[in-house]
Amino acid sequence: MAPGPSLPPSAQTVPGLVTYEWVALDKRNKLMKGEMQGKNAALVKAELRRLGMNPRSVKERPKPLFGAAGKAVKPRDIAIFSRQIATMMAAGVPMVQAFDIIAGGQRNIRFKNMLNDVRSGIESGSSLHEALGRYPQQFDELYRNLVHAGESAGVLDTVLATVATYKERIEAIKAKIKKALFYPVMVMVVALGVTMILLLFVVPVFQQTFSDAGAELPAPTQFVIGASKFMQSWWWLVIGALVAAIAGSIIGKRRSRAFAEVLDRLSLHLPVIGNILRQSAIARFARTLGVTFQAGVPLVEALEAVAGATGSVVYANAVRAMRDDVAVGHQMQLAMRQTGLFPNMVVQMTAIGEESGALDSMLFKVADFYEEEVNNAVDTLSSLLEPLIMVVLGVLVGGMVISIYLPIFKMAGTV
């Protein structure tokens, strides 16, 4: 059972103190359990007695063998937190208390400690955007700029609700993209695994049979046997090359912007999937810029913050080029047209928004349209990929099996 409200909140993590799990009897002789931080067990017992409790046991909380620091804080966690804090602020809950409540419900120790640290910053006099600035990886510049704009305008609760909706929409788009890519990648991995098993363990059995029979082998069978011999001798090299290529691509994309741009351009030109990635980048650009502009952030600053939110290096570079053009006085629709990456419909909607003074509204309409396009494209891709992947698997695995059995059919025909 949780301790009464007079007990110190266990959610607060103070550096240098140890967390103890305690069991005690209250004034009604009722068994209570909880956690408390202290320098040692004796001081914790003394604090419990001061609060009118009779300590039965005080033990240091055991540390887990794995994941002691907690799991990494994911963007989805930030999206959920944004909705929670927005709801509590709209309900009139004080900010410090809202952070206490949200942190107390977190199972991820790392995120819990992070929220407590932000709350401590607010208690010491920092504004929310300044306190969030301690964690730039989780709360990026765009997020902090939106919060700062809400604080400056005195509409923090409204801006937080907008940010929460924005984060949810962006995470939904990212989930759709992952869904579109996950299925074909996993099927290809399985296909490669099955092929390697056949070459390493099945084909050698038939190879020995054919060698004993002394029959002349068809060209497809000779090719498969040759591939099998190569895999038996150099399987470690093939697997190592695949792992090195994947690891090299991931590391190179993180460390080299030029390499990341090359990969991104290749991805955008892939059949079907490239179109989904382009539509996703446009949707994220429009949604992010609309939210930022609506919050009162100046357009040049908004474009700088939006560049990193597109999810594409190519589109991020284009948005920075647009920012430079807008900074010297060009209209955004003209700067957008110069990049050559935005469809005419997007440019025209932006032009109408600039002329009518409703740029944020037009950008939201663009975002809604392209988010729906992404949803439809992913659903269509899933339905098209299933038969296509079956054909690929059939040709790859079936062709190998047929090439193995060709000599058997030939020998049976001569009997």
Automatic annotation (TrEMBL):
> Which keywords belong to this entry?
Cell inner membrane, Cell membrane, Membrane, Transmembrane, Transmembrane helix, Transport
Q: Which GO terms describe its biological process?
A: protein secretion by the type II secretion system
* Segments forming a coiled coil: none
Question: Which residue windows are transmembrane per the record?
Answer: 181-203, 233-251, 388-408
A Pfam family of the record is T2SSF
Record-level GO cellular component terms? plasma membrane
Question: What topology does the record note for this protein and the membrane?
Answer: Multi-pass membrane protein
Matching InterPro entries: GspF/PilC, T2SS_GspF/T4SS_PilC_CS, T2SS_GspF_dom, T2SS_GspF_sf
* Stretches assigned to the Type II secretion system protein GspF domain: 81-204, 285-407
State the signal peptide span: none
Indicate where this protein resides in the cell: Cell inner membrane
Give the highest taxon in the source lineage. Answer: Bacteria
Q: Which family does it belong to?
A: Belongs to the GSP F family.
This one is known as: Type II secretory pathway, component PulF
Please name the taxonomic classification of the source: Bacteria, Pseudomonadati, Pseudomonadota, Gammaproteobacteria, Lysobacterales
